[in-house]
Amino acid sequence: MRFFVVCPGGLEVPLAQELAEIAQRPESKALGVWVIDPTPTSPTGGIGLAGPISTAMALNLHSRIASRVLLQMAQAPYRQEEDLYKLASGLAWEDWFTSQQTLRVDVTAHRSPLKSLNFATLKIKDAIVDRLRDVTGDRPSIDTAFPDVRVQAHLTATQITIYLDTSGEALFKRGWRDEKGDAPLKENLAAGILSITGWKPGQSLFDPMCGSGTFLIEAAQMALSIPPGAIRAGIYGDDAKPSRLAYRPLVTSANGFGFQRLKPFNEAAEQKRWGNLKEAALAQMLEKRKQYPDVDSLRISGGDINEKLVSMFRANWQRAQLPEQALVRQVDALATKPPTNAQEGVMLLNPPYGERLVIKGGRGGGGQDHNSRDVRDAEYGVEPENRFEMNLETGRQSAKRSSRESLKKLQAEEEQDPKFVEFLRQFGQHLKDTFGGWNVFVLTADMALPGQLRIKESKRTPLFNGPLECRLFKFEMHAKRPSSSEG
After folding, report:
1. What is the DSSP string of 169-224?
2. How deeply is 400 buried, as exposed, middle or buried, from its count of CB atoms within 10 A (0-12, 13-18, 19+)?
3. How far apart are the first and last CA of the chain?
4. 448 within 8 A of 353, measured Cβ to Cβ
């Protein structure tokens, strides 16, 4: 079977590394041979691979960076809409789902000659429902909000590829986030960024503007080998599920993954393999708990000036099945210090660029406007998940145009806020004075950030948070040399 694993733009290399690691797990090897496509040299929005159908189960359970795992059903040349109908109607959809299940169809394109994607979507949808009506006598209903089955198609200039979505809800929705209102960056983007930083479990990790804790929770789950799909897979059992979900009612073990609603995955042999995958994951989790028995042993901590966000972080930590209480405190970023006994480590943050200091701090009389976030919003959880990430092969023209326009608007606003500019200057000096020996990584849509911090970056990595073009800047903070008087 052919699969395409979708990821945020710019994370193709970390995703390729992760896929190779998942394929080397003993329980993955037991499923059969995996063949992963070569790592792309330019952004593609994902990576293809071939493997047994059970591959989908392992990928959905273990991939932290993937947005979706798509199973390829067909690929063929096309010239007009009728070609799409002919290809889709010729597929044996009745072997995969029933006419009693609800359906959703999405189409993305890059340089397609067709005039209307909506009409192309309609033709594919008609082909599927007509096929099921002819075979079973019934037509499935369409449900664009909470479908049982999702079909995706991608059009290039000459070819169409049709996929079945084995993930269901997007994989960045882990199931532990419970707060209402705007969320920070997506969890799979956070996981990919952690991979880029080179941080390893056991190494000090600190986020001085942690918000509701996405970076730190992802890191803690990595250290403890908690699969990102643990809640959906029911590894914790029913009692451990959050009681009130921002994504309700879908990110729970009751609804699980998309593949669990497809016929081939409900055969006895595949059910046994699914059980084996979960048992192996649980055994590894229990072993890692011995290595990291308490929160202090994780060496993962954070701070934020906003008391409400600190409370959200603590609650999310608990729902993510992490030990004890999160090491976080309400503190101004300008007053933060390295964690105890940490001479070096990794600092990772996504500063609230675009917000006023009074908003960022949650203080003063300006009133909070949480909708002013830029990188932290990025259409989090909006359906359909942004078309940019669903574009499976390339095509960043419109996204770049959109992000440039957004960035110009944000920068124009910031130019009128000297307080925020001064805050960045002070924060840069604070890093130099206090965090010598640390590697600092900052995710931002502000390409001028190094100049505002007055620190020269050692590396910049282009990333896309939804349609918004960002940079992950790396700053190497050199330890201060002791003065001669100290000798």
Report:
1. S-TT--S-----S---S-HHHHHHHHHHHT--TTS-EEETT-TT-HHHHHHHHHHT
2. middle
3. 67
4. no
- pLDDT of res. 373: 37
Pairing of strands 149-155, 103-109: parallel
- How is residue 424 written in tokens? 């960045």
Distance CA 142, CA 139 (A): 9
Helix (H, G, I), strand (E, B) or coil at 385: coil
Residue 62 — φ and ψ, nearest 5°? Answer: -105, -20
What residues contact residue 137 under an 8 Å CB cut-off, 6+ apart? 99
Whole-angstrom distance, CA of residue 407 vs CA of residue 340: 38
HSE (side-chain half, CA atoms, 13 Å) at 80: 1
CB 392 within 8 A of CB 45: yes
pLDDT at 355: 42
Catalogue the E-assigned strands of 7-64: 35-36, 46-50
Structure-derived torsion over alpha carbons of residues 325, 330, 331, 332, reported in degrees to the nearest 10: 130
Rounded mean pLDDT for each run of 10 residues along the chain, 487 residues in total? 96 97 97 96 92 98 98 98 98 98 97 96 98 96 96 97 97 83 77 98 96 96 97 77 49 90 98 98 96 96 94 93 94 93 91 49 36 36 39 40 52 63 94 96 93 95 88 92 54
Spacing of C-alpha 439 from chain mean position: 23
CB burial class (10 A; 0-12, 13-18, 19+) of residue 434? middle
Amino acid at 79: R
Dihedral over Cα of 234, 238, 244, 248: its sign: positive
Global confidence as pTM = 0.87
Is residue 334 within 8 Å of 427, Cβ to Cβ?
A: yes
- Asked if residues 261 and 201 have their Cβ atoms less than 8 Å apart, the reply is no
CA distances in angstroms from 409 to 351, 373, 445, 468, listed in the order given: 17, 13, 11, 13
Residues 6+ positions from 342 with CB-CB distance below 8 Å:
204, 206, 299
